[in-house]
Every structure is written in structure tokens, then in C-alpha cells.
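Backbones bend. We report:
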Amino acid sequence: MAEQNKDQERNERATPKKREDARKKGQVAKSREVSSVAVLVAGLIFFWFGSAATGEKIMELTRWSLSQSAGFGVDYSNIHALSIDVIYRVFVLVFPLFLAALFVSLLVNYLQVGFVLSAESVQPKFSKIDPIQGFGRLFSIRSLVELVKNIFKIAIVGFAVYIIMRGEAERFVLLVDQSVWGILLYICGVSFKIILSVCLVLIVLAALDYAYQKWEFEKELRMTKQEIKDESKQSEGDPLIKARIRRLQREAARKRMMANVPKADVVITNPTHLAVALLYDQEKMSAPTVVAKGADFIAQNIKDIARKHHVPIVNNKPLAQVLYRKVDVDEIIPANLYRAVAEVLAFVYGMKMKRG
């Protein structure tokens, strides 16, 4: 009973087939935190190198909006054209950022799990709208871990922002003497510093989360010994059935071999333990061929069939042993045995001529 319970424990690593089946279902070890922090870092780099161009575009959009509001009357007849124009200008402004975020997101997901295309994960399932199962998922261990992880992340990020803001508190008083442009530059600098610190913190948290997701994924894929045995049977076949198939194949091959004995020219024996049947057709064969061979019981059957069909039996112990060991059924004899076999065949043909 203890051994059976031990077999039911999921303490075995997942087999390649189990991993491939999980991958086809869209089940992979992936961290959302890695994708989120990658997009955030991409946005930060984009603003670092493109802040001047982006700022110029924002100023241009602002000037255009003010000029339009001053000299363009807005009514029902032109609101559609104005809306299209505004949407287009905003789209041109934010499209490079969206494109960079999309590229980085796809790249990070590919680096995590490779190319995975599965429709099963998006198929509608009634279990997803089952209130009982939904309640169970809401209060599951996974949900608790995600809650603790999010609270910890907010606390760490908030602490990092607090440290930066406390260091900048003394400079806030000096902003009253600055121009609007100076205040704006200061706010942008502090914001960049905050975002950079948050990115560094989130990179560490994302690495820890990826390691955790990897560990949890491997844990969920673990199999019992019985599952491995069942998978082996499904992929390779039941050992009992395979043994039966091999036995039937051997019996069929033996029957075909025995059917060739009456066609043989001679049967060379040990004389008691081995029997090898040879056939030589000068028009079709380059050398004599072994059409049947066997030991003990099979050898006795070969000799019985040979006697029944008047096939000559020659006792030659050395030659029988060499042919049995070196030549398989339906193979021609090697060149180093030509002379010995030729002497036997000449003897047999001579006997047949005398009888004739």
C-alpha cells in the first residue's frame, strides 16, 4: 500500500512528450513581469533618445490646437474633419512609442518561450464561467501568491519613489525662483530619475518572478511513476503485446523458411544440433544461398522435411557451424566458403547423376 501511494506522488520529471503536449495547449513557463518591465524600459529608452523630437512635436501640436481654436469655428458641420485631424496628429505623435513597445513585448515573449501558437487556450470553456470553480480559483494558493507578490512590488516601488522624493524635497522651495521652462525641465529630470529607479527595482523583481514561474511550471508538470509507465505503453506499445507480435513474426518467418527447404539442393548438418539448407540457381544467383537454418528442434524439422522431399543431407560439422554462425537466411555464402560448398554441391550433383 505504501509502495502504491509512493507511485502516485508527482516526484518524477516530466517527459519530453508531456512537455510537448503542454506546449501545444499553450502551457509554458512565462513571466508577465518580464514583459511589463521590458516595455517600461523600452519606453524609458525611447524618451531618453527621442525626448527632444517628442517635445518638439508636442509643442507643435499645442501651437496648432491654439491656432485652430482662435481662428476656426467649431460647429456640427466641421467637427468630424477636426476630430479626424486631431486623431491623426496624436497618432503620429504616439505611434513610434507604441511600435517600440510592441516590438519589445514580442521579442521578450519569444525569448522566454519561443514561438507558441495554440488556439486551445482561447477556446471557450464552461469551466471558466463556473462560479464554484471561479470561487476556488479566487481563493487558491496561486491567487494568494499573486496578491502577496503585487503587494510586495507596490511596497518596494513606493519605497524607492519615497527615497528619491525625500532627497529632492529641499529643492522644491527653489522652484519659486525658476521660470516655467526651468520648472518643466526639473520635473522631467525628477520623473526620469524616478522611472529609472523603478525600472531597476522591477528588473530584479521580474528576474525573481521568472525563476518562480519556472519552478512552479516544472512542479505542475511533474508526473507519477504510473503516468510515465502509461505514457510509455501508449507511445511504444504494451510490452506483452509487443512480445506477442515478435513471437508471431518469428513463427511466420520460420514457416516461410521451412517452406523453402523442399527447394534446397542440399542440407548440411552438424550432424545432430545444426542444419543449414543451401540453394544454388546458376541463372539467378551469383553464389549459393542459405534458404533455411536452425538448431536443435528446428534443425530436426529441417532434416525431416528434407528427407520427406528427398533433399540430400550431408554431414559436415565444420562447414555447418561456420554457415550457421556467419550467414543469415536469404544471404549468399561468403567467398571464403566457395570451395567447401562447391565440393559439397559437386558431391550432391554426382549422387543425383548416379541415381538418374
User: Anything to note?
Assistant: The chain has twelve helices and four strands. The two ends are 77 Å apart (CA to CA).
